[in-house]
Amino acid sequence: MFLGAVVLMGASLSNLGVRAWGHGSATAAQEQKPPAAPQQGGPVIIRVPVDQVIVPVTVKDGAGRLVPDLRRDEFRIFEDNVEQKIASFIAEPLPLSMVVLVDNDLQSKDARPVAESLRAIVAGLSVSDETMVCRFDQFFHEGKAFITDQDKLLTELKRTQLDEEPSVAPPSPAVNNGPSINGHSSMGDVPSVAGATMNLKGQPTKALDDAVYAAAQLLKERDPERRRRKIIFLISDGVNAPKFNKYNYDTTIKELLRYNIAVYGIGVGSAYFDRRFERLSRYAKDTGGDVYYGMKSRAMEELYSRVTEEARNQYTLAYAPAGTDRGAEYHSIEVRVRREGLTILAREGYYSGALPR
Question: Other C-beta atoms within 10 Å of 180: how many?
Answer without folding.
Answer: 12
